[in-house]
Each structure stands twice: as structure tokens, then as C-alpha cells.
Description:
Two copies of one chain form a homodimer. By secondary structure, chain A is mainly alpha-helical. Helix content of chain A is 50%, strand content 11%.
Amino acid sequence: MKKEFRSGCPxxxxxxxxxxxWSLLIIRDMLVKHKKTFKEISDxxxxxxxxxxxxxxxxxxxxxxxxxxxxxxxxxENIYLLTEKGIRLTPIIIEFSLWGNTNMREFxxxxxIEGLNADKTxxxxxxxxxxxxxxxxxx
Amino acid sequence: MKKEFRSGCPxxxxxxxxxxxWSLLIIRDMLVKHKKTFKEISDxxxxxxxxxxxxxxxxxxxxxxxxxxxxxxxxxENIYLLTEKGIRLTPIIIEFSLWGNTNMREFxxxxxIEGLNADKTxxxxxxxxxxxxxxxxxx
Lengths: 139, 139
């Protein structure tokens, strides 16, 4: 699963593991929408193919951004949760959201996202706090 | 050159145009390293192939993140400069850098980057100010 890194640049190294068109959408689904199962993530508007989703989940797991576990009520189904390291991607996700909201309207019809006009630091904190609160159900 | 967008999500829409492993590295080269010519960008440590670089520059130009111009002293060579919209990607670039610097050291030897411990808002402002000052030479 491990990749060669293109250089020692921290930007490049980060892109080496989440710099494709799907990984950050999977992180978004988990972090913002609190999706946890393969099926929930598959059902997103962007329609990620199951084979790609499966490969990306394995990659994200190998770099310790997410981990796989089970809930006591359903021992058959895996759920995926973000690690601390994964949750720390929140500022990147929020910056993508803010940039797209401001700069992509001339090219695409962009959904109105509630709360995106708030202070950036507060948005990031709220998203992280909400995710951590949800995690308490699985500990 | 135009792509189909996967959804109206601002994160997804942004990833549709810069969510590949090369586009943000090209933006980094221009924004942080003040690279301007095809050759300068080709010479980066990550060794982007000329065919990919050429395609990505065209894509970034079509979405108005960069523009192509010439310097008076050399009418033969194109230079590429970031637009306002492109310069607004600075927070994304800085967040990638900060995240990689903190979280990738267990997987790759990460270069020490001077100034990365400063206040985030100040880093972003400094990078943008430096780029805008450089741009004055081309107006």
C-alpha cells in the first residue's frame, strides 16, 4: 500500500496521500456528514465507484487517517472513523469549501452551505468538536 | 478543456479543478517559489512530466487561476502568473504545508521549512504580499 514520496516538501508529501480527486471527499463525508459505513459513503452525490472507495479506504487506513472498527449491535458491518490525524485535516477541508464557495460560482452551480460565513477558526473548531462528540458513541 | 462537475458541493467543485497530485504543486511553485516559466516549473524536485505540466497549465488557465503573458525583454518565452483567484488558494497551500509538517514525519523525511511556526494568518498574508510585490515587476 505504501507509496514512494516525490520529495521532502510537506505540501507534496501531503498531496502524495490525499492529493487525488476522491480522498478528501471521503474525509468530508466522514468529518462533516458523519458517514461511517462503506454504503453511506458510496451513496454520496459524487458517486464514487466501489472499487475506488475500497482502495482509498485502505490507503487512508495505511496512513492512519482512519481506522476500521465494528459496532456492538452489528458485528458483521465495518464502520470507519477518523483518527486524530484525520480530524486534523479539518482546516484543509474548510479552506477547500471556502475557496469553492467564493471562486467556483462562475463555472458551477454551488450549493449554499449554512454557517460558511462565520469566522474560519470557529467553523474549524465546531466541525472538530461535533465529530469528537459523535465519536464518544463508539468508545 | 471544461470538465463535468461531480456535484454542487464547494469542496467537490474545488477538487474537480485542483484535486489531482500536480495542480497544487504547480500553484506552490508559482506562489511560494515565484517560478514563472515552463522550464522553471519542470525543474522542480517532484519532476513533473512536460506533457502533464502542459495539460495542467492549460486547465488552470481555463479556470482563470493563472494567466500567460510575455516579458518585454524576451518576446519568445511565455511566463505564467497567478490571478487574484489563484492567489486566493494560499490558505489551502499553507494548510497542506502545516498538516504535512506535523503529520507526515513518520512516513517521509520532511524538509524543514523556515517560518512555518509563525501565526497562520501571518504566514498566509506574507506569502500573498510577497507574490503581489513580485507581480509589480510585470505590470
